[in-house]
Amino acid sequence: MVGRLTFCLFVVASALFVCGPADAKMAFPGKDWAEAAPESQGIDSKRLAAAVRYLAENSGPDGVKELVIIRNGYMIHKGSDIDKVHGVWSLTKSFTSTVLGLLVDDGKTTLETRACEFVPAMRKTYPGVTLRHFTTMTSGYYALGDEPLGGYKHGPSVTPFKPSPKPLFAPGSTYAYWDSAMNQFGNVLTQIAGEPIEELFKRRIAEPIRMNRGKWDWGDFGKVDGIVVNGGSGNNNKHVFVCARELARFGHLFLNRGKWNGKQLISAGWIEEATKAHVSAKMPLHEFSGADGRGVYGFNWWVNGTKADGKRKWPGSPVGTYAASGYNNNDMFIIPEWNMIIVRLGLDEGKLKITDQTYGTFLEKIGGSMIDSSGKSGRGES
């Protein structure tokens, strides 16, 4: 009976690709990440190298220079330029929603809180917009100056805190990936917190997980109503600036459901809610939306759900995969089924955009590099 049970457990574990060493324990970095050979963490190094090579061949000129792969808390691959600091554009949005999670945990607000309670300028035209609407890109918020600038149509305003009298749509009715809405969202969170959201994030998240303060920063718009407002979106050069090595710490916190080396920094319930789809695949898409999040958008995190076309966002990757993403091929994947974080940063989307299909194939190859207890590689091509 015991032998049969052991076999069944092995089959389930293999199917989920939780196939690292049986006694593997989650590690947490101190001043730096502990580095380990891929095989020590259940990864075939040759197949891993082939997966990395595939991504390099299907990226822009930055290739895999800023690529970091962490498994079980150990760095098993690093590119040559993982300490390069630069802006990460819309990847910033996942930092912003994390601040919302902290404020919800503290009882200072809820997802159903109306934004106009803290930013009165929204009361006349946007009285029904809630924090849930903002974090799911369904607010319909439109700022003065949001008229398209060439190909940039999704909220380019440099005055995002001045509401336009003409909303995009009724809140909750349509999906529109909209930058000025996220900047106003950042302003609302600032007013709720009573301090810059960078300061709250630094004190509650960055410092406890030991992000190197010399390797990250958060751009801002200056003072609004007496408090510095950091960019909530990542546009207009008001984004988070960070390197791949330090960003991976943020991902590792989420991988561990908000707990860092035994201390709960943000609730596991928030992590779970933030990283699952909250936008219906059947919801209408605004014509100027900067991206299509229907079926695959959480609380400013992208998830491996089913898109409006019925296809998985990252085919070949586990269903539980989710990501923070920004322009210029700045992406961080968290893959709970594999105890893994993958960060790929760059400044090269102008040369070649890494597509979901490419990332899906890359992740499938990563899955194929996993070794089960018999020492054989998992599924996937080399």
Describe this structure in words.
With 382 residues, this protein is of the alpha+beta class. It is built from nine helices and 14 strands. The longest helix is centred in the first third of the chain and has 15 residues, at 2-16. The strands form four sheets. Strands 1-3-2-14-13-12-11 form a seven-stranded mixed β-sheet, with helices on one face. A three-stranded antiparallel β-sheet has the order 4-8-5. A two-stranded antiparallel ribbon has the order 6-7. The model is unreliable at 1-23 (pLDDT under 50). The two termini are 37 Å apart. The protein is globular, with a radius of gyration of 21 Å. The protein is 27% helix and 13% strand. The protein folds into two domains: 24-84 and 243-274 and 314-382, no CATH class; 92-240, Beta-lactamase (3-Layer(aba) Sandwich), CATH 3.40.710.
Care to give the gist of this entry?
It contains nine helices and 14 strands. The protein has 382 residues and is α+β, with helices and mostly antiparallel strands. α2 runs antiparallel to α9 and α3 packs across α6.
